[in-house]
Amino acid sequence: MADADRVVAGQFGQLTPKEKGSEESKTIQKFRDLLETLPIPALTFGTAIHPELVDNPKPPFTPSVLKQMKENAKNRHVVIRGHAEKAPEFQKVLMEKAAAVEHGALKLNRTREEMDEVLKEFDLALQKVELQLSSHTGDKSAWWLCGEMFSIADVDLAILLNRLICLGYELKFWAGGKRPFLETYWHKIQKRDSFKRATYFSTNAVHLTKLRGILKQSKTLLASLTAVMGIAIISYIIYRRVSKS
């Protein structure tokens, strides 16, 4: 982790306290351990298998993408075993991985009951985050997750929240006043330039999807937009000619 921290700090500024062993440093490490060990692949692929768990998945998790992910999760162990047959020198390692994918720690094809346990794990972790954020009162109200400094733990949390909202879990975990401090944090993190840059493409994909839906729903609107654009172009041409005369 130390080498990775140095690389990140070199690119994006100091994300860990200079004073190692401080209370802030310990808190950051505690939340890193909490957030980085969450089974995000299991949640992501499990959502594809059980789409009824969410209300409004967003790009890149479109229906077609979720359908493909569902097939991948169900057939992953079969594919790995196929690779094992074609590569005898790696057969043992690949067969062990196939077993872990089908029944063990790498399993992505979760039952609904198993997904309930996965969701409970995320819920407990986010409750710890909510309690931490709620402790920042008075002159600490503007603090980030672990202190005044925006830290690597905030990066972990931002990535997690963005994944959850793209999958469509915001109403389940924090939105609508369910976890008000986490909801406020989410609005705050979205205003950071670094977050905007990191999520530029997914954000624009959401906007394009909304626009596409609106245009599909209303041919009249599409015709109106075309007419307005045509009028604007004609007006501009007339203006240019008049201004030159």
Helix and strand string, N-terminal first?
Answer: HHHHHHHHHHHH
Q: Can you identify the CATH class of the largest domain?
A: Mainly Alpha
| Spans of at least 5 consecutive residues with low confidence | 1-12, 206-212, 214-221
Overall pLDDT level: 82
Total count of helical runs of at least 4 residues: 12
Largest sheet: none
How large is the radius of gyration?
A: 24 Å
What is the beta-strand fraction? under 5%
Task: Note the overall shape.
Answer: globular
Task: Report the end-to-end length measured between terminal Cα atoms.
Answer: 69 Å
**Residues in helix, %:** over 70%
CATH fold category name of the largest domain: Glutathione S-transferase Yfyf (Class Pi), Chain A, domain 2
Secondary structure class reads mainly alpha
Number of domains: 2
Number of strands: 0
Can you tell me the CATH architecture of the largest domain? Up-down Bundle
Write the layout of secondary structure elements.
Layout: H1 2-12, H2 23-36, H3 40-49, H4 63-86, H5 91-103, H6 112-134, H7 152-167, H8 170-173, H9 180-189, H10 193-198, H11 200-217, H12 219-244
Protein name: Ganglioside-induced differentiation-associated protein 1
Organism: Cherax quadricarinatus (Australian red claw crayfish)
GO cellular component, one term: mitochondrial outer membrane
